From TrEMBL:
Protein name listed in UniProt: Sodium:alanine symporter family protein
Entry coiled-coil feature ranges: none
Membrane-spanning intervals of the chain: 15-38, 150-171, 183-204, 216-236, 311-337, 357-380, 400-418, 424-444
Chief location of this protein within or outside the cell: membrane
Compartments where found: Cell membrane
Species name: Senegalia massiliensis
Keywords: Cell membrane, Membrane, Symport, Transmembrane, Transmembrane helix, Transport
Membrane topology: Multi-pass membrane protein
GO MF, one annotated term: amino acid:sodium symporter activity
GO CC, one annotated term: plasma membrane
């Protein structure tokens, strides 16, 4: 087992090597420049549109539910365990590179959501189906007159395989361990209950998932953020030091036991993507189900994902860890007071220091609900990838497999699954990033037309007011 994990780790290192890092950050930077950093320039408009009631009936879930479903799939172990792992492996500076990937990733998510609406289809069940596999096939054929369905199939296959790891077993294992450590509940009991709950929700399809996530996600995110803010308020004097650690370590390459700058960047970007999935294309699958039929508007709503997920929630986690006093930077790298603390355990320890008695429960409950919602969101992603490959009828079998894997992930050790997830995360990003660059003229054209239309409407309104 150890040799298999070592072999997979080598593949993961190759997949998440310089080429993937440059593609992820480079594509986000390219789209940011192309759209004049629309993810920040139109941030207030994006928030306004998110809560707008003006949308069509041509879709399965509301724009708000679409964003909550995409956030449900991204806000999970990456926000708690992933941030801690990035700091352990890459040093505090990895947090800076998480911010970089999220800042540019907002433009990637904008492009993904825009294209998902423009090139979605209605399947034989009357549901909307969309995402990278569809805009790769339909968009690139429209733009270049050539058949790139093979590239769409590659994305769907990688996404389908990734769903079992990042979207199911890893999350189920995190839930069962958190409940066992905090409340002493046997992992088998947790696994059975969780599998039953997941099965009950996914039977109703995306509409049922949307109804659950639009309630669970806001509550769990706000609760976690409030808990983190209380810790930070109680340690205000340490916050400047925490930011200093992040910025100074970001360019020195000081990781645990030494390390090099590439390690800091790699783990920062990789965990940033694991957290917000910008560039992976997965969120586009949820946005394609939106009742909003205006691509640019859904793109603006989609761009909020990176802001909420990484720039807010992951930052809260990182700061709580850094103000706790666990992490110290010495001449030999980053030293941790307790060598045994890694992943979610490190975050729990930091919250316990900041908020004795209840701090650990905030993390445990956050991990439970974050991970549960991720299982729901990624079920939908995996089902749509499978539908693209084999058709709608295959989904009924997928539901059964999904529930079984949810149970097995909860009760069995799954160290290898983490590495497995990293590999297919990286692989599914490549077809999507190729498509985003190839279809960037369409993104630019539609963005320009949207801006012109808004300008005309503003001039008309000004004329009416002046008259």
């Amino acid at each position: 087992m150890e040799s298999i994990n070592e072999f997979l780790s080598r593949i993961s290192d190759y997949v998440w090597g310089p080429v993937t890092i440059v593609l992820l950050v480079g594509t986000g930077l390219f789209l940011s420049l192309l759209t004049k950093f629309i993810q920040f320039r139109k941030l207030s408009l994006s928030l306004k549109l998110l809560f707008s009631k003006e949308h069509s009936d041509d879709g399965d879930i509301t724009p708000f539910q679409a964003l909550m479903t995409s956030l449900a799939a991204t806000i999970g172990t990456g926000n708690i365990a992933g941030v801690a792992s990035a700091i352990v492996a890459g040093g505090p500076g990895a947090v800076f590179w998480m911010w970089v990937s999220a800042a540019f990733g907002g433009a990637s998510k904008y492009g993904e959501a825009l294209l998902s609406i423009k090139y979605r289809i209605t399947n034989e069940e009357g549901e909307k189906s969309g995402g990278p596999m569809f805009y790769i096939e339909r968009g690139m054929k429209e733009q270049y007159g050539r058949n790139f369905k093979w590239l769409g199939l590659a994305f769907a296959l990688f996404g389908f395989l990734a769903s079992f790891g990042i979207g199911n077993m890893v999350q189920a294992n995190s839930v069962s361990r958190a409940i066992n450590e905090s409340f002493g509940v046997n992992v088998w009991i947790t696994g059975i209950v969780m599998a039953l709950l997941v099965g009950a929700v996914i039977i109703g399809g995306i509409k049922n998932i949307g109804k659950v996530t639009d309630k669970v996600v806001p509550i769990m995110a706000i609760s976690y953020i409030v808990g983190a803010l209380i810790v930070l308020f109680m340690n205000m004097s340490s916050i400047p030091t925490a930011f200093s650690m992040i910025f100074s370590n970001a360019f020195t390459g000081k990781a645990v036991g030494g390390g090099v700058l590439g390690t800091v960047v790699r783990f920062g970007v990789a965990r940033g993507v694991f957290s917000n999935e910008a560039g992976l294309g997965s969120a586009a699958i949820a946005h394609a189900a939106s009742t909003n039929d205006k691509p640019v508007i859904q793109g603006l709503i989609g761009s909020l994902g990176s802001v909420i997920d990484t720039l807010i929630i992951c930052t809260m986690t990182a700061l709580v860890i850094l103000v706790s006093g666990i992490v110290n930077i010495g001449t030999d790298g980053v030293m941790f007071i307790e060598e045994s603390y890694r992943g979610a355990a490190l975050t729990t320890y930091a919250f316990d220091i900041g908020l004795p008695v209840i701090g650990g429960y905030i993390v445990s409950l956050g991990l439970i609900f974050f991970s549960f919602s991720t299982i729901l969101g990624w079920y939908y992603y995996g089902s749509k990838c499978l539908e693209y490959i084999f058709g709608v009828k295959a989904i009924s079998y997928y539901k059964i497999i999904w529930v079984i894997l949810c149970l097995s992930g909860a009760v069995f050790p799954i160290q290898i699954v983490w590495t497995f997830s990293d590999i297919f995360n990286g692989l599914m990003a490549i077809p999507n990033l190729i498509a985003l660059v190839a279809l960037s003229p369409i993104i630019f054209k539609m963005t320009k037309e949207f801006n012109m239309e808004r300008l005309k409407n503003k001039l008309k309104n000004d004329e009416v007011k002046s008259a």
